[in-house]
Amino acid sequence: MNAAGGSLYLDPEGAIVWADTDAAELLHRSVEELVGQSIATLLGADDPALDRLLRLLDADPPLGGCELRLWRATGGWVWVDAIVSGDRHPSFGGVRVFLAETPRSRWVEAARDLMLASTFDALVVVAPGGEIVTANRVASKLLGLSPEFFAGPVEAELGRRLRTTDGERVPWLADPVAYCVGTGRRDHRGAVVYAHPAGGSRPMVATLALRSADGEPFAVLSLIGGAALDEAASLLT
Hints:
Elements: E1 6-10, E2 16-19, H1 21-26, H2 31-34, H3 49-58, E3 64-71, E4 77-89, E5 93-101, H4 103-117, E6 122-126, E7 131-135, H5 137-143, E8 152-153, H6 154-161, E9 162-164, H7 176-183, E10 187-195, E11 201-213, E12 216-224, H8 229-234
Antiparallel strand pairs: 1-2, 1-5, 3-4, 4-5, 6-7, 6-12, 7-8, 9-10, 10-11, 11-12
């Protein structure tokens, strides 16, 4: 696949009228499988990015960009910058949308084995700057938060609920990557208290680990509570 990305050609309703081979390889599909589909079928249910993209396609001229999360045929999401250039396909029409894979996809891929192996750990993958990339199902269950909370700044929801055992703000939560780089340590572990949405404060053990994918740093936050807490707490002593 061309490292720069690939192009889809979309009509004003978002139907794919043509795709080049680079876009097909990026999405793990054939050109024939893509042509005729709506771009909406590649996005998550009720993804607001669809409205942003359709507004760009409907503009005069159709120019601009937005980030999309697209589903690959072989499983897993790929994050792309979608750049609407205004160019049209000479034979099939449709506006060209150039797809460039972002580092977010590589972070998710690098963390996938951790996600699959974790039975008791709530795992949250965080990008530089503190934005949540993804989280596993255990995170939603253990923390009592629906999946839509695991988007945007990690501090927005978790920062409000997580505290140290002394009741202080967790120092690395605003930007975990910058904290690890600034302290020169790739791993941090400590006891925390979580204010659960269902009520009450629940003790947990938090582990922060700095990782990288193709030279791009990211952080993985692990939270352990409930039945697995005693074993995790023994690592602190």
